[in-house]
Amino acid sequence: FLLIGKLFAQNTTSLDKISALDQFIQSGISLWKTTGLSVAVVKDGQVVFKKGYGYANINTKAPFTTNTVSFCASTTKAMTATCMAMLVDEGKIKWNDKLKNILPEFRLYDAYVTDEITVRDLFTHNAGLGNGDGLWVYGYSSKEIVRRMRFMKPAYSMRSSFIYQNLMYVVAGEVIEKISGKTWHQFINERLFQPLNMKHTYALFDDAKNESSKITPHWWYGDTLVKSIETFNYGGYDPAGSVVSTAEDIIQWLKFWQDSGKVNGKRLISANAYTEILKPQSFVTEDEFYPTQVKTKPHWMTYGLGWFQQDYRGKMIQYHTGSLDGSIAIHGFIPEEKFSIYLFANLDHSELRHAILWKSIDLWSFNDNSRDWSSELFTLYKTRRETARKAVKDQEAKRTLNTKPNLPLYQYTGTYSNEIYGRAELIYDGTTLKLVLPNKINAVLNHWHYDTFKAKYNYEWFDSGWINFSLDTEGKVSTMMIDGINYSKI
C-alpha cells in the first residue's frame, strides 16, 4: 500500500521535470555510450529545457552544445511539405493535382501510376515504390534520380501499402522548383528559414562551413568501439534530408508548429494547410513503423505529410526520426498539448533518442516520471541487434568450404550495368578482385563459395555485401548480383 501511495504521489504532484529529464539523459548517455547530443523542449511556446551533452568530436573533445550544427536528416521532410503547402496556399498548385500536368517528363515504371500520381502522393510513402536509396548513396543529382526512377518496378500496387523511401521527396523538390522558379535550396531558405529567423540553419552541411561548432559523425563498431567517420558525400537527396541546424535555431521551428504555422503572429501557412500536413494520409504497416511500437502499444499508426503518427495515452503524437551515416535526430510534437521536443546526436542510430522522446512526453504531458524508457528500449534494441547478428552467423554457417570459383578471377572483370543504379566496374590486380561503384564507393571481393563473393567496402562502416555471378550457356559471366540487384555484363 505504501509503495502504491508513493507512485501515485509521484504521478500526480508537480515534478521537477527539468532535473528529471537532465538526470535521465545523463544516465542514458552512459548506458547507450552516446558520443554527444543536444536537446530542446518547448511547451506552450516557451523553452522549458535546452542543453548540450558530450562531444561534437570524440577525438578533439570539442563539446556538443546547443549551438552545434547537426543534421536534421529526415526531419527535413516536414520542412519540404511545409514549402509545398506555401505554394498550395498561393493557389499555384493543389495537393490533388496530377504530377503529369506539372512534370510531364516524370515517369514511373507503371504507366497507370504515372498517370494517377498526385502531389500528395509525393509525401505519403504509399505510391508503390520500394526504397531505392542507392540512387542518392551513389551520388546522382536530383534530376538524374528523377530520371532513373522510371526503371524501378513497383514493390506493391499504388496506395495499397507503405514502404518508407526518400525518392518521392526528391521529386517534390523538383516540383517546388518548377512551380516557384527557385531551387528547393533557395525556396526553403527564403520562405522558411529567414522568416523564422533561423540564422544557423542551412539547406546543406557544406553551407555551414563558417560555423564554429559542427558535428563529426560517429559509428558504433560492435558493442565496444565508437569511432569518428567522415561526412559522406550524398547525391541529390536534399529535400528528403539535407537540412542542418542547431538546437537553438530549431526552437523557432518548434514554436512555429505550436503556433499553428505562424511566426510573430503572422501566418506562413494557412490553417487549412497546417491541418492537412498533420492529418493522417496513409496507414503504416507494422514492419515499416518504429520498433518502439511494442512498448508504446499504439492502436493505430499513420503517416501525415512528413510526420509519423500514433496514439499514446489518449494523445495523438506527431514525430519523425532522421538518420544519416553517423548522425541522427528526432522531432516529437503533441499539437493539443503544445508540446515539442527535438534532439540532435552524432552517433549512428543511438536509439537513446526514442527514450528521451517518450520520457519527455511522460514528464510534460502526463506529469509522470515512473517509467525507465532508457532501460526498456536499450533491451529492445539490444535484442534486435543480437537477432540480426544471429541471422548473419546462420547465413555464414551455410558456407560450403573448399570450393573454387568456376572461372579464373580475371574472367569476372569488366563493366556491368543496371538501368536504375548505373555502371559497376570489376577489376583484377593479379591477386584481388575489386568492385568500383559510383561516388567513389569500392569494395574488395573475397571468395566465399562457388561464384559467391563477400564484399568489404572502402567505407568501413558500410555493411558487408554479397556478390553473386551467373554464367551463360557458353560458360562466360553474364550477370553480377550486388545484394540482390542484377547487373548485366556489357
Which features would summarize this protein structure in a list?
490 residues; 9-stranded antiparallel sheet; 14 helices; 23 strands; globular; disordered N terminus
Structural features, described:
There is one protein chain. This protein is of the alpha+beta class and 490 residues long. Helix content is 31%, strand content 25%. It contains 14 helices and 23 strands.
Helix content: 25-40%
Percent of residues in beta strands: 25-35%
Structural class: alpha+beta
Uncertain segments are: 1-13
Number of helical segments with 4 or more residues: 14
Overall outline: globular
Largest sheet: 9 strands, antiparallel
- Total number of β-strand segments? 23
Please state the average pLDDT score: 95
| Rg of Cα set | 24 Å
Strand order of the biggest β-sheet: 3-2-1-15-14-13-12-11-10
Distance between the termini: 77 Å
Topology:
Blueprint: H1 2-12, H2 17-32, E1 36-43, E2 46-57, E3 62-63, E4 70-71, H3 76-89, H4 111-116, H5 134-137, H6 142-148, H7 167-180, H8 184-193, E5 218-221, E6 225-228, H9 238-241, E7 244-245, H10 247-258, E8 262-263, E9 266-267, H11 271-278, E10 282-283, H12 293-296, E11 301-303, E12 308-312, E13 315-324, E14 327-334, E15 339-345, H13 352-366, H14 373-397, E16 414-418, E17 422-428, E18 433-437, E19 441-449, E20 452-457, E21 465-471, E22 477-482, E23 485-489
Antiparallel strand pairs: 1-2, 1-15, 2-3, 4-7, 5-6, 8-9, 10-11, 11-12, 12-13, 13-14, 14-15, 16-17, 16-23, 17-18, 18-19, 19-20, 20-21, 21-22, 22-23
Helix pairs in contact: 2-13, 3-7, 3-8, 6-7, 13-14
